[in-house]
Amino acid sequence: MQSKMDLGTKAYDEIEKIVQKNQVLVQQLNTGVHNSEEVRNVVSQITNEKISDTTEIRLPFTTDFGQNLHIGKNVFINSNSMFTDMGGIYLGDNVLIGPNVTIASVDHNLEPSIRRNLQLKPVYVHQNAWLAANVTVTPGVTIGENSVVGAGAVVTKDVPANSIVAGVPARFIKKIEK
Question: How far apart are CA 136 and CA 149, in angstroms?
């Protein structure tokens, strides 16, 4: 995926086709009653990757694009999570995503004349990380292995492995001892 996406281009038109298809799937997923296997099957269609049988996704589940969301094994995604994934979101194995978490991999330009064009910056959440309730992760951030992001935090900078961060903006609290 390129690092920027300009409106009105052929590349953006292709993205828009995927968005339109996936939004129908997201709406069907969130307005019906589904067992865990059905949820994984629909999310697999949205992401265009097989979701592991060890992963659990609670509804409602929302993504604005879908095909740049990569979900590892034994991941738990709680309800009302939002993935703005056009820039790429990578969830490692054993990741826990709390309720109402937002992960954004898309940003906008500050210059008003091109503000609607997109800047794409991938987000990585490494294995065993835990994002508690109401966390927001901004574009381009990496959450290190085994780290914990406290409830309500806004993560604007990388989180080192084995760390606890919390607050707005998120700040280092302490190291996790193994």
Answer: 10
Name the helix (H) or strand (E) containing 20.
Answer: helix 10-31
Q: How far apart are CA 146 and CA 163, in angstroms?
A: 7
Is the predicted pLDDT of residue 12 greater than 80, yes or no?
Answer: no
Q: Is 74 helix (H, G, I), strand (E, B) or coil?
A: coil
* Positive or negative torsion for Cα 19, 100, 47, 40: negative
Q: At what angle do helices 10-31 and 36-47 cross, to 10 degrees?
A: 170
3-state DSSP assignment of residue 22: helix
**Residue 70 catalytic?**
no
Q: Whole-prediction pTM value?
A: 0.94
Rounded to whole angstroms, how far apart are CA atoms 29 and 166? 32
On whether the CB atoms of residues 137 and 156 are closer than 8 A, the answer is no
Measured in degrees and rounded to the nearest 5, phi and psi for residue 29 equal -60, -45
pLDDT single digits (tens) 59-92: 999 999 999 999 999 999 999 999 999 999 999 9
Q: What is the DSSP letter of 173?
A: E
Catalytic residue among 34, 70, 108, 126: 108
Give whole-number Cα distances, 164 to 89, 103, 147, 148, 173, in Å.
21, 18, 6, 5, 5
